[in-house]
Design a protein that fits this description.
HSP40/DNAj peptide-binding domain; alpha+beta; Helix Hairpins; three-stranded mixed beta sheet; 27% helix; 13 strands; 3 domains
Length: 285
């Protein structure tokens, strides 16, 4: 039987991203072949990484929930794909890479080398178990602002005393690792006061007054690139969520662009004059 990704990580279908990350961290460390010497550790390690690669990606998770394993099977329908084998130290791993076959309008990227997923998650050039170091190329850490990570940027960095200009692709997320030719770069995205990220979607909280909520208004809201004018409908309720399609973050792997959600928070004044209270009572509000 083919594995159930949720069962593999030990999470429910309603698990949050943080719960999926936590489950992966625990399972991957437990079954890493350098640490676990049981005969089935290699296969289990591969299954755990496949499960995490799918469930941590919004689009892959959606496809899996809809089509199951068929979404990633190179022999299933129009998905197409290739099978690869690579030697990682004493371990021989086989994984699949999708080709987005004829008629398919997306490419999910298939399954990656499980050691690459593991190292990307833990942000290192290899975790040392029993004195074995899997990779030798160095890993550096860079701090990025939310907008630099979302929109991409060019940075000058100092690596071992020499300065280099590097391009950061749009859409990188906190904790991701970028592979360059002779080094890896671990991404640390600083929190932002305005924007909050969920996958490739972005959330912004916007305060409006009671009169704006009741009567409606035109307000300015921030987006990743510029401010936009937004119509607030009369009778807007607290915590109304307005979706701006395609105004989110570009997927770093090329799987489209997320959306921007504006959450309207109605500000209730803490102090009212006697006249204001009288008028509110007259209106029956």
């Amino acid at each position: 039987m083919k594995q159930d990704f949720y069962e593999t990580l030990g999470v429910s279908k309603s698990a949050t991203k943080d719960e999926i990350k936590s489950a992966y961290r625990k399972q991957a460390m437990q079954w890493h072949p350098d640490r676990n010497k049981s005969p089935d550790a290699e296969e289990k390690f591969k299954e755990i990484n496949e499960a995490y690669e799918v469930l941590s990606n919004d689009q892959k998770k959606s496809a899996y929930d809809q089509f199951g394993q068929a979404a990633f099977d190179p022999n299933s329908g129009n998905f197409g794909g290739h099978t690869y084998t690579q030697q990682n130290g004493p371990f021989n791993f086989t994984w699949q890479s999708q080709g987005g076959g004829q008629g398919a309008d997306f490419d999910f990227g298939g399954f990656s080398n499980p050691f690459d997923i593991f190292e990307q998650f833990f942000g290192g050039a290899g975790v040392n178990f029993g004195g074995q170091q899997r990779r030798q190329i160095p890993t550096y850490k860079i701090e990025l602002s939310f907008l630099d990570a979302a929109l991409g940027c060019e940075k000058e960095v100092s690596l071992d005393g020499s300065k280099k200009k590097i391009k950061i692709p749009a859409g990188v997320d906190d904790g991701q690792r970028i592979k360059f030719r002779d080094f890896n770069l671990y991404i640390d995205v600083l929190p932002d006061k305005i924007f909050k990220r969920d996958g490739n979607d972005v959330y912004v909280s916007q305060s409006i007054s009671i009169s704006q909520a009741i009567l409606g208004d035109i307000i300015e809201v921030p987006t990743l690139k510029e401010k936009l004018k937004l119509r607030v409908k009369s009778g807007t309720q607290p915590n109304t969520l307005i979706r701006l399609r395609g105004q989110g973050i570009k997927d770093v792997n090329g799987y489209g662009v997320g959306d921007l959600y504006i959450r309207l928070n109605i500000v209730i004044p803490s102090r009212l004059s006697a006249k204001q209270k009288e008028l509110i009572n007259e209106l029956g509000l």
